[in-house]
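Deviations from the work plan: none for this task. Representative record:
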Amino acid sequence: MRYTIKSRIWIEADGHILLGEGRISLLKAIGQTGSLSKAAKSLNMSYKKAWSLIDAVNARAKTPVITTSIGGKGGGGAELTDYGKSLINAFETINKNCWKFLDKQIAETQL
Amino acid sequence: MRYTIKSRIWIEADGHILLGEGRISLLKAIGQTGSLSKAAKSLNMSYKKAWSLIDAVNARAKTPVITTSIGGKGGGGAELTDYGKSLINAFETINKNCWKFLDKQIAETQL
DNA sequence: AGTCGTTATATTTACAAAGATATAACGCTT
DNA sequence: AAGCGTTATATCTTTGTAAATATAACGACT
């Protein structure tokens, strides 16, 4: 039996959480579906929770990560801003690097 | 305003959590106090919770991390095994390295 | 004008995790 | 043998978080 090492990372702004794994997958789902409600459904998350998460992210980010519209064709929608996309990319890159780093660390240790 | 990046790591054995930051600080408190109940008190944690945590760790670790005695001088007590000490050391080293690594990663990114 | 699917928000309900409480067993010490 | 402080464990209560429910506003389209 071997030990494995796991991690969760998150980005903070001003002492408050900005982005973690859950918010990242929500943002990605919004990018794919073009809608906050569809994104929530695809993640088996309530609309309210999804909305609250996005609201918190927009409040802390230097620039909003999504834009929304109410009414009109399809009832409205949401889409990622360029800044949102770059945040996703940065987060995922760092996260993968972190996993690799930790795997190396645990391999160098014998317990 | 700058973004900061934070992390939590934990060690798993057999798909179940073995050690995280909370359990590590409990183990350290046991090493310092020589008693599970004193350790719990020093961390403002109920005895029951502390005992459950330690029980879970001992169940998953390759070798017990503490030894306990009931009755006798002082009513009994608990102390770290050598294996427990080495687990603490390994965890804390890897954790610090992880923090440094992530700080470097976020510094290389502009968001 | 009415329908539709969406965003936005408040309020209530349910549940799981945490905490509090109680009790037994143990073996030095006095 | 009685007391003490500890480990070990079960049961009940609380509480904080998540989920469910309800409602309003909006604008394109038919």
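Residues 35-38, 47-48, 51, 55, 68-72, 74-78 of chain B lie near DNA strand D (CB under 10 Å from a C1').
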